[in-house]
């Protein structure tokens, strides 16, 4: 849909509409000359109703002649209406503003429909010089992060390691002060630095119910150019917790209230935002020590509205509170839910203070994505192209694949194999010397590999499989020398209905 906008705002300026997709909604252009030296100019544009983020890309010519244009932003009414939204001068050519976050130099706040203005300051343009400027304006709706802000940190396909569950100063994360004398809300910078030290590629700062961390992350991301900071929050209720990944839109989390009577209402609202939602630590005791930590939602939740299950939280993989049985029970019911892991870290310094036993990145979720960007990671997580590194190593690796007549599948994929049809499955493992591989079919460990012992730094185990034409799911685990789980793989689904995954 095209919106009516200002077409001429001065003798030398114009606004034109762009097509949908990753193209700008508006392109504002103008010209400057010597008489504009040391003046300010307003470049107006109209913001339609329903927009919740404005992103601007600004460029101009004649820099080689020392032409300089500074940049700012005014909301409807400008300075007189206290609608100043920021001034970056000449230090940024791109900025974004939204209700939750803004590029440093700019202020987050409501995106009010109406007449906005770019504020241009021209500290220098020579007497006989001429310059042209272009401002590409992008309007976002429903919390979508525009493509122009989702530039991959790494462009190549690969296996990317991350932690999908942690807390900092914006909820109950705490750490010792510089003097070590007391605990205080832990700055997000320390969490991000801890993740870098652990060799992670991405983290989700999932504070309880809030999105106030968004603005800090907007500031941190340019510095952490090897670590992708993902939008997230932990929806924390009296009857269960869940992570919503990929959006900063505030969400009413009050399950049991008049506005949010049950979890299905909350999940339906979350699904409209297009993120990735996983149920957290579903097997926990709920009570005064950890209110709502266990999954006790009533009525029964529609699992079509859920994307994943946190099957490992901190170090619970081989304990009575492991989420693996809960997850596999949902798989048996016909749901395709991605298994993920999260540290649930509440102390960014914990890794160093505990000498490496727990902390950020324990466990890690390792995702096979097209690149290191928000959209690519969300796509891969929804597809189930992931495994869990239980102890958060930097190099342990697992691949589970299948090939047959007309298909070549990896973890998370669905294949169709007719009765008596055959497929060849493979498990590739790296850096778990002395451990063993196990294949799980429909929740039971299957004796399909003659020799499961890992005897090399990198090793492949293969087995043939004949279909009975029915629905099944197959996946692989890797156990260490002590028999404990070290890698947990997602399934390949055979003859499953594709509609089973939301």
Notes on the protein architecture:
The chain is mainly β and 502 residues long. It folds into three domains: 14-147, Jelly Rolls; 153-394, Alpha-Beta Barrel (TIM Barrel), CATH 3.20.20.140; 396-502, Sandwich (Immunoglobulin-like). The protein has helices at residues 188-197, 213-220, 263-271, 324-332, 350-353, 374-383; strands spanning 14-17, 26-33, 39-47, 53-60, 68-74, 84-89, 94-97, 114-124, 130-140, 158-163, 174-176, 183-185, 202-204, 228-230, 232-237, 240-245, 276-279, 308-313, 338-342, 364-369, 386-389, 397-404, 407-410, 414-415, 422-430, 436-441, 444-446, 458-466, 472-479, 485-489, 492-494. Strands 10, 13, 14, 20, 21, 24, 26, 27, 29, 30 and 31 form an eleven-stranded mixed sheet that branches. Strand 18 (308-313), helix 4 and strand 19 (338-342) form a beta-alpha-beta unit. The longest helix is centred in the middle third of the chain and has 10 residues, at 188-197.
Strand and helix layout:
Elements: E1 14-17, E2 26-33, E3 39-47, E4 53-60, E5 68-74, E6 84-89, E7 94-97, E8 114-124, E9 130-140, E10 158-163, E11 174-176, E12 183-185, H1 188-197, E13 202-204, H2 213-220, E14 228-230, E15 232-237, E16 240-245, H3 263-271, E17 276-279, E18 308-313, H4 324-332, E19 338-342, H5 350-353, E20 364-369, H6 374-383, E21 386-389, E22 397-404, E23 407-410, E24 414-415, E25 422-430, E26 436-441, E27 444-446, E28 458-466, E29 472-479, E30 485-489, E31 492-494
Parallel strand pairs: 10-13, 13-14, 17-18, 18-19, 24-31
Antiparallel strand pairs: 1-2, 2-9, 3-8, 4-7, 4-9, 5-6, 5-8, 10-20, 11-12, 15-16, 16-17, 20-21, 21-30, 22-23, 22-25, 25-28, 26-27, 26-29, 29-30, 29-31
């Amino acid at each position: 849909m095209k919106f009516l906008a200002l077409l001429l705002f001065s003798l030398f300026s114009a606004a034109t509409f762009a097509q949908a997709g990753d193209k700008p909604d508006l392109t504002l252009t103008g010209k400057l000359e010597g008489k504009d030296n040391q003046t300010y100019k307003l470049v107006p544009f109209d913001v339609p109703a329903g927009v919740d983020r404005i992103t601007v890309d600004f460029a101009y010519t004649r820099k080689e002649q020392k032409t300089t244009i500074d940049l700012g932003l005014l909301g409807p009414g400008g300075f007189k209406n206290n609608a100043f939204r920021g001034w970056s001068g000449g230090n940024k050519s791109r900025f974004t503003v939204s209700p939750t976050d803004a590029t440093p130099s700019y202020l987050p706040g409501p995106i009010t429909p109406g007449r906005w203005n770019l504020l241009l300051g021209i500290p220098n343009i020579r007497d006989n010089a001429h310059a042209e400027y272009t401002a590409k304006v992008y309007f976002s709706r429903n919390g979508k992060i525009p493509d122009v802000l989702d530039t991959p940190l790494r462009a190549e396909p690969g296996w990317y390691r991350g932690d999908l569950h942690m807390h900092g100063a914006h909820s109950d994360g705490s750490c010792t002060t510089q003097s070590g004398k007391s605990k205080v809300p832990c700055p997000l910078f320390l969490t991000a630095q801890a993740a870098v030290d652990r060799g992670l590629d991405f983290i989700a700062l999932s504070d309880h119910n809030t999105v106030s961390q968004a603005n800090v992350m907007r500031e941190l991301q340019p510095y952490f150019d090897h670590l992708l900071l993902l939008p997230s929050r932990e929806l924390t209720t009296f009857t269960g917790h869940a992570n919503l990944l990929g959006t900063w839109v505030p969400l009413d989390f009050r399950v049991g209230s008049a506005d949010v009577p049950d979890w299905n209402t909350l999940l339906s609202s979350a699904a409209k935002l297009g993120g990735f939602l996983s149920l957290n630590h579903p097997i926990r005791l709920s009570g005064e020590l950890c209110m709502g930590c266990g999954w006790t939602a009533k009525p029964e939740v529609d699992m079509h509205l859920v994307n994943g299950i946190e099957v490992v939280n901190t170090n619970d993989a081989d304990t009575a509170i492991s989420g693996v049985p809960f997850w596999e029970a949902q798989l048996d019911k016909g749901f395709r839910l991605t298994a993920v892991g999260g540290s649930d870290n509440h102390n960014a310094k914990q890794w160093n203070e505990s000498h490496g036993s727990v902390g950020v990145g324990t466990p890690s979720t390792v995702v096979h994505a097209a690149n290191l960007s928000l959209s690519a990671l969300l796509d891969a997580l929804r597809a189930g192209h992931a495994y869990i590194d239980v102890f958060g190593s930097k190099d342990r690796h697992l691949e589970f694949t299948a090939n047959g007549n007309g298909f070549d599948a990896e973890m998370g994929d669905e294949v169709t194999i007719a009765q008596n049809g055959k497929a060849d499955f493979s498990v590739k493992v790296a850096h778990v010397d002395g451990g063993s591989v196990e294949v799980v079919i429909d929740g039971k460990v299957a004796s399909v590999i003659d020799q499961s012992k890992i005897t090399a730094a990198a090793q492949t185990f293969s087995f043939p499989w004949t279909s009975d034409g029915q629905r099944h799911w197959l996946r692989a685990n890797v156990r260490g020398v002590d028999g404990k789980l070290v890698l947990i793989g997602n399934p390949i689904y055979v003859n499953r209905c594709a509609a089973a995954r939301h």
